[in-house]
Amino acid sequence: MQSTFSGGFSISLLCRTLFVGSDSRSIRGHNNTFDILSRICIQKHTPINKRRYKSMASHEKMEYTILSKSSWRQRSNGCCNTEWMTMSQFLDHLENPQAGSVFYIQRQNSNFTEDFPELISDVPPDIPWATESFGKLPDAVNIWMGDERAVTSMHKDPYENIYCVISGEKDFLLHPPTDRPYIPYGKYPAAVYKESSPGQWKINPMNIDTPKVLQESESDNEESNLVPWIRVDPLHPDNTRYPKYKNTRTLRVKVQEGDMLYLPSLWFHHVRQSQACLALNYWYDMEYDIKYAYFKALETLCE
Amino acid sequence: MQSTFSGGFSISLLCRTLFVGSDSRSIRGHNNTFDILSRICIQKHTPINKRRYKSMASHEKMEYTILSKSSWRQRSNGCCNTEWMTMSQFLDHLENPQAGSVFYIQRQNSNFTEDFPELISDVPPDIPWATESFGKLPDAVNIWMGDERAVTSMHKDPYENIYCVISGEKDFLLHPPTDRPYIPYGKYPAAVYKESSPGQWKINPMNIDTPKVLQESESDNEESNLVPWIRVDPLHPDNTRYPKYKNTRTLRVKVQEGDMLYLPSLWFHHVRQSQACLALNYWYDMEYDIKYAYFKALETLCE
């Protein structure tokens, strides 16, 4: 593996520099990410999501919500295997992108602490001001690294999110949760991409004979083979199909190396990144308080 | 004036007993309110709201929202005078209620500190735990005393409300602000009661030639001679006219002597009281934060 990025700092120093100090926005990381990861983890086999660009795709004239392999595994109680590759292979793919195949470390569920135990001591276990503010420790620390074509479609999370970019940059497009009435949701059958041959992907609809598993999913959906998904592409909104969407209020935030973004729970977000951007985020469980009750009341009115 | 209530404690001791201690609910006041008020304030001329029972009334086949004299004065920039009587007269009325006339000290706008300066030193200027929690001092300290027939119709306030009953009891009927979609609002022309002869009241529609003043009112109403009012009587709801109201979730709270109720901002409340109940409340300005944004989003969907 050849790296176009090099530098004299360890990831430990990067993270400590990133997180210590009253104004993390004024502190930048350094572009030695590839070097460090390849040195520490090059022979490590790492779970990777392979997927195509869009999280929504058509197949035989039908639209599907495309789940990642990891969420498919969660939903289907282990019937599918996550794909693995070495960090060396992964970094090679990032340096030499191939048409059609998009790789992204984004397994969530605290994949930083679960999948990269070698790096745990380099990173603080929590963000002290956030832990004090939220009155709890984070539920998860996630690591994100991948292809610039890996765009995360608009969604919301039930977590207070402290998002830290270590190298590269991320572009967040945000709507407040009070814009829920203007966000067009649809319910679609779920599918996963399957690599039929190297670089060739086909839609693989989920087996609708597994309703029990789906009923336990986050969709809270009685029609359990359907998954809610936000239809609109905020970068190219279809104002004819989704006329209310233009009522949303939009914030655009570029999070650069050394920046830390507090993304409050239930805010809608769409995320892009620079090629091989490396980021960590801390998920603090949200409070199911009057704010959540308000959100559910809004949601009920929208349904 | 004759008083059926007597006791050995001053209002000062009552209030200090009420407010000091970790569990104010376990501490009761004493029934010497009449005695104390008559001793301190008997010759004092005090602004009193005279009004009839209902805050909604019909006149010539039209329904009106009945404003109190004080709010009418606020809205009309001083064109009407508040009525005054001595505390002695007021207490006599409470002891000998007359059909048709209902008297209530409820001017708000910090009427405790404005109208009863003699008693200020008897009462703490704020509630320390609330001041710490809300990060500010109260905007107003109000005193409430009156006829058991003076029922306050369902409404909400933009204040965090710490409600302290000194003697007697109050019955609160509460709905959370997330029930806004089920609360039937109407918009009605405003009126005040006018005492045409002692004990005889007539509806006096407000002059609709004063739109400027009304445009500045809290109604935020472009059709500025109309005032929003919650139509339903929660004690006898008309399920045929307001079928959604049955979806509300109701809390009933009896606040007794020595009890302190925290009534959060924007909660809907309907209030009854025992005859000659005496209460103080502290209004802390609400935060216009995400909760307020949620409420306004709900309200927008309901309009």
Automatic annotation (TrEMBL), chains A, B:
Transmembrane segments: none annotated. PANTHER family: BIFUNCTIONAL PEPTIDASE AND (3S)-LYSYL HYDROXYLASE JMJD7 (PTHR12461:SF99), HYPOXIA-INDUCIBLE FACTOR 1 ALPHA INHIBITOR-RELATED (PTHR12461). SUPFAM superfamilies: Clavaminate synthase-like (SSF51197). InterPro entries: Cupin_8, JmjC_dom, RmlC-like_jellyroll. It holds the Pfam family Cupin_8. Coiled coil: none annotated. Residues 105-299 form the JmjC domain. This is JmjC domain-containing protein 7 isoform X3.
